[in-house]
Design goal:
The chain is an alpha/beta fold. It has helices spanning 21-28, 65-73, 95-101, 119-124, 140-152, 200-218, 220-229; strands at residues 2-8, 32-38, 51-52, 62-63, 82-92, 106-110, 128-131, 185-186, 189-190.
Length: 230
């Protein structure tokens, strides 16, 4: 079982969609579990203060190191647990990284807010910073949803047909080929004849050529990786 533990200032945002669909299935089959920790519970003052202004000036507030560390210490009992902080400064989160994560037993996810968290927590707790994309969200919870979703669907037993993952976008550095279903003719357009031929070798070749063409035109960075491994 993969256990994910989320440290957040807004626990009411969870489980959200994680209580339905494939996530509900993963929970019921005990393939995956979710534990949500409210950082505010570790604040000691009567106002449950979790943030303060940064030394050196600057706009925004930072989550206090003592509060965040206390929250993590209340749940994380093993230094070998994998802990990440979702941050624009982190390493790129992609399909390759996600595959490595499903090999973990426990993943702790720290959701930042305001201008982030005190850097000393990152250093002392040996937290890995991970970035889901070149943009900024209003809080780490949105990023956590994406991070968890990508990983959970990779766990064996979650999807009905686990082999379908092998043909998805980003596998083998290729975007997915076009897909079609009934009706055969719609809005003046027909399904490519090769898909109706019943010739599996020709269909496989067509899909590969389409995936290559789309990747070459839309994602030159992925195309270079694909050609390098070709």
């Amino acid at each position: 079982m993969l256990k994910t533990r989320v440290f957040t200032l807004y626990p009411d945002l969870f489980p959200g969609p994680f209580g339905t669909g494939i996530y509900k299935k993963a929970l019921q089959k005990k393939i995956w579990s979710l534990d949500v920790v409210n950082i505010r519970d570790s604040a000691k003052d009567k106002n449950k203060t979790v943030d303060d202004t940064p030394f050196g000036g600057g706009s925004g507030m930072l989550i206090k190191p003592d509060v965040l560390a206390a929250s993590m210490d209340s749940k994380i009992l093993d230094d070998h647990e994998h802990t990440i902080y979702l941050s624009p400064k982190g390493i790129k989160f992609d399909q390759s990284y996600a595959k490595k994560m499903i090999e973990k037993k426990i993943i702790n996810i720290v959701c930042g807010h305001f201008e982030g968290i005190d850097n000393r927590v990152l250093e002392n707790k040996k937290i890995e910073e991970v970035c889901i994309g070149d943009y900024v969200t209003s809080g780490g919870e949105v990023a956590a949803y994406i991070f968890i979703d990508v990983i959970v669907r990779l766990l064996p037993g979650v999807l009905g047909n686990h082999n379908s993952i092998k043909e998805e976008s980003f596998e083998n550095h290729l975007l997915e080929y076009p897909q079609y279903t009934k009706p055969q003719k719609w809005d003046g357009k027909e399904v490519p004849k090769v898909l109706l031929s019943g010739n599996h070798a020709e269909i496989k070749s067509w899909r590969l050529s389409q995936a290559e063409d789309i990747t070459r035109r839309r994602r030159p960075d992925m195309w270079r990786k694909y050609k390098k491994n070709d």
